[in-house]
Structure formats: structure tokens, C-alpha cells
Amino acid sequence: MNAGAMRERVTLQVPVRTPDGAGGADVTWSDVATVWASVMALSGRERPAGERMEARRRLQVLIRYRSDVTAAMRLVWQGRALDIRTMCDIDGKRHMLLIDCEEGGQ
Fold first, then answer.
1. Which residue, of 15, 51, 61, 66, has the greatest Cβ tally within 10 A?
2. What is the pLDDT of residue 54?
């Protein structure tokens, strides 16, 4: 993946839990930042989920390094929610962050 090819906009979101009044909590998502990114699809698969098939797709997203990105967050790209699975500082110099994501499910 090439940093010069960062032509997509992705939004980093963090989960916000609010009490639902019945002893549980509702989860909503709050925007943290919108950044330039390069997005590449890696694979896709379908699996049974009850009486229907559930499609899931793995993607890699390259952004400029940010120290606040965690696996508890998610990305939104083209209106699609991407769950963060892993992250890697690809050169060890805190220049670029490669994020492995999964779309679909949950």
C-alpha cells in the first residue's frame, strides 16, 4: 500500500455507552476524526447466520500514524462500518498505521 494513494476519507469512531434505564446500556458511536486513507479489500466470505447468509469482508486501511487508535474503535468508509481487528505501525517510526478491518456482521 502506498501512502501517496490515500484518496479515501475514513472516519474513526469510538463507542459511547449510555445507561438504558433498565440496568443495561445502549451503545452509540461518536466521531473522533476524519482522515485520508488508502483502502484495499483483501477477502470476502459468506457464512450461515440463522436462516440467512451473512457476508463478511476483510479490508486493510492505511492512514497516517495516530497514537489514539485502538481495537475498541471502528472506521466508517463510504457509509460502511468497519470493525478494527489489528493495527500495525508498519515501519516502526510512527509514520503510517496499517489497520486490518472486517465489514459485516455484529
1. 61
2. 60
How much is the pTM?
0.81
Three cell numbers written together for 103: 465489514
Share of the chain above pLDDT 90, in %: 68
Instruction: Determine the Cα–Cα distance for residues 34 and 28; give it in Å rounded to an integer.
Output: 17
- DSSP alpha helix (H) spans, 1-106: none
Q: Where are the beta strands (DSSP E) in 1-106?
A: 8-19, 25-49, 52-64, 74-77, 80-89, 96-103
**Cα gap 86→106, rounded to integer Å:** 17
Average pLDDT over residues 86-103: 95
Mind listing the domains of the chain with CATH numbers? 3-103 (2.40.10.270)
Q: What is the mean pLDDT of residues 34-49?
A: 79
All 3 cell numbers of residue 40?
484495499
C-alpha cell at 74: 471502528
